[in-house]
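To assess whether the prediction recovers the assembly geometry, we first specified each molecular entity separately, as shown.
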Amino acid sequence: MNEQNKTLCNEEELFRFVDNDQFTSEKITAPRYSYWKSVFRVFFRKKINIMVIAFLVLILLVSFIMPIYWPYDQMENVTNSAVYNLSPKVAMQRFGGFSFKWLLGSGGLGNSILYGIVSSSRISLLLAVICAAINMTIGILMGALWGYSKKVDAVMLVIYNIVANVPYILLISVLVYIIGSGFWSFVFALTITGWLPIAYFFRTQVMIIRDREYSLASRCLGTPVSRVITKNILPFLTSVIVTLLASELPSYISMEVFLSFIGIGLSANVPSLGRMISQGQGAFLTYPWEFWPPVAVASAITIILYVLGQNLADASDPRTHM
Amino acid sequence: MESNEKKVVLSIRNLDVVFGRGKKAFKAVDNVSFDIYEGETLSLVGESGSGKTTIGRAIVRINPCSAGEIYYKGKKISGKLSRKDDRDVIRKIQMIFQDPAASLNERATIEYIISEGLYNFHLYKDEKERIAKIEKVVRDVGLLQEHLTRYPHEFSGGQRQRVGLARSIVMEPEFIVADEPISALDVSIRAQVLNLLKKFQVERGLTYLFIAHDLSIVRFISDRIVVIYKGRIMEIAPTEELFQYPLHPYTKSLISAIPIPDPMIEKEKTLFVYSPSMHDYSVEKPELVDLGNGHLVFGSPAEIENYKKIRFAGQN
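The predicted structure of the complete assembly is given in tokenized form:
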């Protein structure tokens, strides 16, 4: 046994000395990490996300391109009361055979339900995106400042407590009564205080990160507040922001639908899903084609946005990137 | 403690730091005064919660002082400062943090983390110079250029701590508060970081305030040691003086707690346990008294007499 060991050790050609290079031990062999690449890799791993995105693209294309070629006019047949409230079958007979326009019948003023829904979804989507963009931007920036500075906190808490105790619906209805009910006044009504709860939510999130050690380190390096917010705080809140966006976007569509339904939403000349539903609800037993299609489309858009947002939020959490 | 050849860089006078207000107020640092000389390493040792980190943070002004002053090169840096002075102090006094995992921004590349201070003070003429500066400092701390585009979570603890060190060093500071820079590290990595600290001190004439609770490491790195207990200074002495003549019972207990790398002796060792009830301060109030040789001890006049006897026994 001993003999054998000796011969093994003597085989010097099997071993050779290697210089100890300090820097080779520092090398990282793992592939480079990129945050956004990982987000999309995780996101597209789920098949449902591809489906949902396809649906969303379809809705966007249809609702934004179709009205350009086939404009919707609520009042085109208003003088002809014979074409009011026609079922799809009757409407198509009436307007000379199969046509896309009358696929869902006609409404209470002889308007095309299908064209109405398409134009309305465009308005609803625009409204949701614009309101969410304004509210989220102001909310996040104000929330970051609110959470970061103790002086701002004292002032903002008072403002928040006053405004948050006024019922939101009441505030919006009063505003709509005062400034009218056009598209932009509606946006104004939804955004004037809409950012406050978002900012309040972010205040708490920011407070958690503000006193972490790397933020203290930035303070020791003399980093200005604006850069601490954009570099130290907001990147950590990406997944929180996406999650919030996922619930905010559909909520504006529901809000518009609800407000138009109770009669204080967009004005009558702006086609909107909420208005169509409220017009159709009175007769949804007698003329169901005027009620169910807009309800279905409003629900579909809300659900698609919600699923998309939730899955994107999951993917943007770096803990899922492994 | 006036010394002709040594220049005082930082001096703390009667510093109090109080957290909370009213009944809930907690005095973390109580009437602390000491000086730090240029080019030396002064260590603050004490148990958890004794206020070491609080003093360090008061110097970099993360924690406001409740009373007392801090002077940097004769200029008061506690309280409100003009914007110019404020930026000046930030540049010259840097801090190294305890937890290398928590003190680096996980969503920023190493390049940004190291350049952060350079951006803030615009310490470069053009992009080229900034890149050159960070590449040099990265090499100085033993990392590779290719690390610059990576994120902190890809690094080991020792590497991260060196990134933290590079981030401070690139600012070309004069004074560094090192808040337990190695206590979160693997034992095998500790020496690496300590040697880097020493290397920078020799190369750049840096002054360190080294906060630690491990006396064996403190003995290796520091010139003088301040022993602190419950926010009060118990003893200040040059390193070897303190290890040879620990006078205050609290210092004795700390030294007796150092593990001995011999299981036979370690087993037999009797620990010296400190309790504040050892002192009787009902009649005479204690204070920090200089015994000579730069050795200061906290005690009542009677205790001081006793300490003097022990210290100079057999010498006179």
